[in-house]
Amino acid sequence: MIRYERWALREKPRINVAAVEVLLRSAAIAAVLVFPLATGPNAASRTQVESPPAQSYLGFDANDYPGDNALPGLRRTFTFSGYWLNPPPGAKTNSWIGKRAELLKNGFGFLILFNGRPSRELQPPVDPRDLGARDAEIAVAAAQREGFSAGTSKVIYLDIEEGGRMLPAQLSYIRVWSERVASSGFAAGVYCSGMKVKEGKGQTITTATDIHDRAPVTAYFVYNDACPPSPGCAYLKNPPPPSASGFSGALVWQFAQSPRRRNYTGPCSATYNSDGNCYPPVDTAGGHILLDLDSSVSPDPSSAAIRVVK
Predict the structure, then answer these.
(1) Which residues fall within 8 angstroms of residue 308, CB to CB, at 6 or more apart?
(2) Per residue, what are the HEC states of the chain?
(3) What are phi and psi of 155, to 5 degrees?
(4) How far apart are CA 208 and CA 210, in angstroms?
(5) Does the CA dihedral 86-88-94-98 come out positive or negative?
(6) Do the bridges between strand 155-159 and strand 109-115 make them parallel or antiparallel, or are there none, so unpaired?
(7) Tens-place pLDDT, residues 207-262
(8) What is the pLDDT of residues 177-195, one digit of tens each?
(9) Measured between alpha carbons, how far is residue 67 from residues 71, 79, 102, 284 in Å?
C-alpha cells in the first residue's frame, strides 16, 4: 500500500530474531523495574492475578499475490491474508483476482480490501457521493465474483491512504460507500491511520477517531508502524492486539510496513531486512514479495463477528 499523512509523506522485512529477542527482553526488564514484584508478609494482598491475554492472530497484506507455491510455507507463519478486490494503491492490475480457492485450500482467513479514492480525485466538479455509490457497487460485485457472499466473508475494508482529519469530500465519499455496501448485505469497514497527528494548540487527531465520529463505518483496520507500540517486522505467534494500535476499537492492526518509515521505526529497525523491507520468512517460497504485517482479533478478519465501536 502507499500510505501518507496529509502533512508528511509516508515512506514505506526478513526478521532479525536476535534483535526481536533483545527488544522483548528489554520490555520485560522495564516492566520489572516499573512494577516490582511484591514481597514481604502482605505480598499476597498487594499482588493482583490477571487473566491471560486474549489470542491475537498474525496475518499479512501485500500488493502482489505471493504465488501459489508460496502459500503452504506462508501458512506456517500467517493465519490470514489480505485480498484485494481491485488494483492496490499505485498498481494498474490486480494479481489477487481468482486466487480465493488457492488461499482457502491452504487454510487462510481473509482480509478483504478495496482501494478507495484519494482526495485529489474527489474535487469539483466531481461529486464524491456519486463516486462513493459507484465504487460501492464495484466492490460488492467484485466480492461476489470472487466468491465472497454476504454473511460468509462479509466485511469489506475501504482503503483510505491519507491520514489526519478527513476533508468534507472524503467523508461524503466514505459515508455513501459504507451505506451502499451495508445495503448490499456486506459490512463496511475502513483501513485508515491510527496514528496521532498534531492539529495545533496541543490538540491531536487520529483518522480512525475522526471517521468513527462522522461516518457509518462498522469495522476498523488501522495502521500504526511506530515503535513502540509496534514490535517492528516480527513474526510473533501471538502478536500485540489491535487495541494497542492507538485506536481501541480496531479489529485489525497493521503494525509493520514495507518499506519501513525510518522516522517512526528507529527503535525496531534491526527487525527489518537491511534494505528496509519486510519479506516472507526464509523458509517459504515467497521470495522478495514486500509484506505488511497485521494482527487481528479473529483468524478470519472479514468474517469476524462485528463489534460496533461506540
Answers:
(1) 218
(2) CCCECCCCCCCCCCCCHHHHHHHHHHHHHHHHHHCCCCCCCCHHHHCCCCCCCCCCEEEEECCCCCCHHHHHHHHCCCCEEEEECCCCCCCCCCCCCCCHHHHHHCCCEEEEEEECCCHHHHCCCCCHHHHHHHHHHHHHHHHHHCCCCCCCCCEEEEECCECCCCCHHHHHHHHHHHHHHHHCCCEEEEEEECCCEEEECCEEECHHHHHHHHCCCCEEEEECCCCCCCCCCCCCCCCCCHHHHCCCCCCEEEEECCCCCHHHHHHHHHHCCCCCCCCCCCCCCCCCCCCEEEEECCCCHHHCCCCCCC
(3) -90, 120
(4) 5
(5) negative
(6) parallel
(7) 999 999 999 899 999 999 999 999 999 999 999 999 999 899 999 999 999 999 99
(8) 999 999 999 999 999 999 9
(9) 7, 17, 10, 11
Cell of 204: 491531536
